[in-house]
Structures are given as structure tokens and as C-alpha cells.
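This follows on from our talk about sequence and fold. Can you supply me with one protein entry, sequence and fold together? Could you add the entry underneath, on a fresh line?
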Amino acid sequence: YEDRYDFRSNLLDWDLNMRVVNFARGSIIHAAWFRRFRNKGISFEFRDVQYTLPNLSLVSMTEGKEKGRSVARRGYWGDIVHSPYLATCLRSDKQELYKTMNKQHKHSPLEVAEWNIFSQMNEIANHQEYREAANQEKADEKT
């Protein structure tokens, strides 16, 4: 980010509205959540947890030059524009998660991500497509 005082907020708004929201179902990503991810690196908050330490799980080291000498720098060198929301929230087998009411989504990206990750892990463990308990009972009754 540059030194101008408004550059960061303008860039966040541009990236959200021109890059993220234009994806199918991108409107589920609320501006406040996207802003929090870009400013603090926290994409999903669970319950009433206070995040006082930075998330260092994606931090890596790289070597570079500074004033003619070699230095190692720690940082996040990945893609900060396309947040984890794109990978975990924009596509799901459970279409009810994308329902809207009064132009507001009924479910949050956290709920969509939890569902997607839970179903993926369940499919890996059981080697079959994941179905909810209610859907499983209906399917068992038909067979």
C-alpha cells in the first residue's frame, strides 16, 4: 500500500467491487468481512474469540537485497486480493446456503465454508458423496 491516507480503503473497495463481487455468488462476501481479511488477515472469526496474535500460518521467508547486503524478510507473499472466501464460499452442493431475504444473504461465508470443508472431509473419510442426515434418511427410505 502507498503512503496516501486513503489509498488502502480505496483499493479495498475497488478489489471487492470489481474483482470479488463479480464472481458468481460473490455477493455473499460482505464488505466488512473482506475489509477485515485485507487489513488483519483474518477471514473467518469463530464465536467470541479475541484474535490478539497475528496468524503466522501462511508466513514465509525470502531473501533479498537491502542497501547492497543480503537480508531475509518474513511476510505473506501470496494472493491477498482473492481471499480464502473464493476457494471456500462461492460453490457448494447445498444451495440453501445462498438464499437471500430482503436482498441480504441468510447465511454467512463462514457457514458456507464450514459446510464445504465438513462435507469434503467426510467424503474423504467415507469415500462417498456426503449427504445430510435428513437427506440420507429419505434416500434410505426410497431404496
User: Anything to note?
Assistant: The helical segments are 7-20, 31-40, 84-89, 109-126, 133-142. The chain is about 40% helix and 15% strand. The radius of gyration is 20 Å. The chain has a mean pLDDT of 80.
